[in-house]
């Protein structure tokens, strides 16, 4: 039976991830047919670098698909079935500040964790709210699939702002990426793997791994990681900083090996070590521009003025793109496929706040997200998560109330900071460069 074709809007279409997303869409067009693709970005100059390539892919593999390119929000969101949202508010210029300003203060400089993640989150909340409000002005039925970082802060803020909007789905591809890496190690098909998992976004642990036939792989994987370097599935394409990130999973498991931690936990357990190894003048923002972005732009440039694909490489993404399309497919055709999902807790983790947005295994279908109950978590993990959740909650409240004190409290709580003097210094510097995106008011309140 033919599946009904969908209209999708790609928000933040100027991203270097978009060409591979389109390539993946074309690879999966029988599973997720698309009748119309709307490319939306506020920066048309950036999208122009990849426009010819994206049009050429669509013309080659799906000539019946209508293509719209726009910088007008109303045109982008007035009539679509799905929004694939991957916006970066402030682009790489602001990402560079997010990473370099904390390093100036001897703190972790990372785009989603620590002070950099705080600043990026404060920018992203506003950008996401503007987008959701515009989409909902036209339709309550459009599915918004949000992959905008930092997903933990953005997801919690959106849950507070739109508590009854069950078609607003927040996702992250890092657990999916780790599952692909696990599958390569175990020599099994990732589509057959299932996990038990708990945490917050970029702050979680795998606790079981098995396949659809019930075969348990967790013990074998844990033993492997005790004795072999953990490498991403695409290690040959990764920079050294990313290879080092995966190696720290081994290091964390040398201390506590009962669960497999996500890679981002390195920033909370080895903050001092990471700061010492970081170059405050050259961070991942610079690395991305010189490597991944350049590689994508170079491929896309070959499509300029071409009417046939010829030998031009078809970019695709076995993680980000595949997950985005698979999630949309599962929702559109009510497949209830299983993913690691972000959702309001409401008893999924018994001994954790019900209103928190947690990350657990769950399914996605026409009713949205359905988390799979996890049960209770142990005191060590519960304590870590409660501290991190308090940081996320205070960050969201700081944005909503424009409250300097709550922002300061959030940063002082963050495990990558843990110092009021440093928290205040880095907050003031981040505020200074983010005035166009967010502001805070100092009030006559105590710091704690």
TrEMBL record:
<feature type="binding site">
    <location>
        <position position="95"/>
    </location>
    <ligand>
        <name>substrate</name>
    </ligand>
</feature>
<keyword id="KW-0326">Glycosidase</keyword>
<feature type="domain" description="Glycosyl hydrolase family 4 C-terminal">
    <location>
        <begin position="197"/>
        <end position="417"/>
    </location>
</feature>
<feature type="site" description="Increases basicity of active site Tyr">
    <location>
        <position position="111"/>
    </location>
</feature>
<dbReference type="GO" id="GO:0046872">
    <property type="term" value="F:metal ion binding"/>
</dbReference>
<dbReference type="GO" id="GO:0004553">
    <property type="term" value="F:hydrolase activity, hydrolyzing O-glycosyl compounds"/>
</dbReference>
<dbReference type="InterPro" id="IPR001088">
    <property type="entry name" value="Glyco_hydro_4"/>
</dbReference>
<feature type="binding site">
    <location>
        <position position="202"/>
    </location>
    <ligand>
        <name>Mn(2+)</name>
    </ligand>
</feature>
<feature type="binding site">
    <location>
        <position position="149"/>
    </location>
    <ligand>
        <name>substrate</name>
    </ligand>
</feature>
<dbReference type="InterPro" id="IPR036291">
    <property type="entry name" value="NAD(P)-bd_dom_sf"/>
</dbReference>
<dbReference type="GO" id="GO:0005975">
    <property type="term" value="P:carbohydrate metabolic process"/>
</dbReference>
<keyword id="KW-0479">Metal-binding</keyword>
<keyword id="KW-0464">Manganese</keyword>
<keyword id="KW-0378">Hydrolase</keyword>
<dbReference type="GO" id="GO:0016616">
    <property type="term" value="F:oxidoreductase activity, acting on the CH-OH group of donors, NAD or NADP as acceptor"/>
</dbReference>
<feature type="active site" description="Proton donor">
    <location>
        <position position="173"/>
    </location>
</feature>
<dbReference type="Pfam" id="PF02056">
    <property type="entry name" value="Glyco_hydro_4"/>
</dbReference>
<dbReference type="InterPro" id="IPR022616">
    <property type="entry name" value="Glyco_hydro_4_C"/>
</dbReference>
<feature type="active site" description="Proton acceptor">
    <location>
        <position position="264"/>
    </location>
</feature>
<keyword id="KW-0533">Nickel</keyword>
<keyword id="KW-0170">Cobalt</keyword>
<keyword id="KW-0408">Iron</keyword>
<feature type="binding site">
    <location>
        <position position="172"/>
    </location>
    <ligand>
        <name>Mn(2+)</name>
    </ligand>
</feature>
<keyword id="KW-0520">NAD</keyword>
<dbReference type="InterPro" id="IPR015955">
    <property type="entry name" value="Lactate_DH/Glyco_Ohase_4_C"/>
</dbReference>
<protein>
    <submittedName>
        <fullName>6-phospho-alpha-glucosidase</fullName>
    </submittedName>
</protein>
<comment type="similarity">
    <text>Belongs to the glycosyl hydrolase 4 family.</text>
</comment>
<feature type="binding site">
    <location>
        <position position="284"/>
    </location>
    <ligand>
        <name>substrate</name>
    </ligand>
</feature>
<dbReference type="Pfam" id="PF11975">
    <property type="entry name" value="Glyco_hydro_4C"/>
</dbReference>
């Amino acid at each position: 039976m033919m599946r009904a074709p969908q209209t999708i809007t790609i928000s933040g279409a100027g991203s270097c991830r978009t060409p591979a997303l389109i390539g993946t869409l074309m690879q999966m067009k029988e599973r997720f047919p698309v009748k119309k693709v709307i490319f939306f970005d506020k920066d048309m100059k950036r999208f122009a670098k990849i426009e010819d390539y994206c049009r050429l892919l669509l013309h080659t593999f799906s000539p019946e698909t209508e293509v719209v390119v726009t910088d007008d929000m109303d045109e982008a969101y007035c009539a679509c079935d799905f929004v694939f949202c991957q916006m970066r508010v402030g682009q790489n210029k602001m990402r560079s500040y997010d990473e370099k300003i904390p390093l100036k203060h001897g703190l972790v400089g990372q785009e989603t964790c620590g002070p950099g993640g705080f600043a990026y989150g404060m920018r992203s909340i506003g950008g996401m709210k503007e987008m959701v409000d515009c989409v909902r002005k036209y339709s309550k039925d459009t599915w918004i699939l949000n992959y905008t970082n930092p997903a933990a802060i953005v997801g919690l803020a959106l849950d507070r702002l739109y508590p009854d909007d069950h078609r607003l789905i927040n996702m992250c591809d890092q657990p999916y990426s780790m599952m692909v890496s696990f599958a390569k190690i175990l020599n099994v098909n990732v589509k057959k793997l299932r996990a038990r998992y708990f945490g917050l976004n970029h702050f979680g642990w795998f606790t079981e791994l098995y396949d659809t036939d019930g075969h348990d792989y967790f013990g074998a994987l844990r033993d492997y990681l005790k004795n072999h370097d953990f490498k991403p599935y695409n290690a040959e394409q990764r920079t050294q900083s990313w290879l080092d990130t995966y190696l720290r999973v081994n290091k964390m498991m040398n201390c506590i090996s009962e669960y497999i931690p996500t890679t981002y936990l390195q920033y909370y357990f080895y903050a001092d070590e990471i700061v010492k190894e970081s170059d405050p003048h050259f961070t991942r923002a610079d690395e991305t521009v010189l490597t991944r972005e350049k590689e994508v732009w170079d491929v896309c440039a070959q499509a300029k003025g071409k009417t046939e694909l010829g030998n031009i490489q078809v970019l695709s993404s076995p993680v980000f793109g595949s997950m985005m399309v698979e999630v949309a497919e599962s929702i559109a055709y009510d497949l209830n496929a299983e993913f690691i999902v972000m959702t309001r807790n409401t008893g999924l983790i018994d001994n954790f706040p019900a209103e928190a947005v947690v990350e657990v295994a769950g399914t996605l279908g026409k009713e949205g997200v359905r988390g799979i109950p996890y049960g209770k978590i142990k005191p060590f993990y519960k304590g870590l998560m409660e501290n991190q959740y308090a940081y996320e909650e205070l960050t969201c409240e700081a944005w909503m109330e424009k409250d300097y004190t709550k922002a300061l409290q959030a940063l002082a709580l963050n495990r990558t900071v843990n110092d009021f003097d440093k928290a205040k210094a880095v907050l003031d510097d981040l505020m200074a460069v983010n005035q166009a995106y967010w502001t805070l008011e100092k009030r006559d309140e105590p710091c704690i």
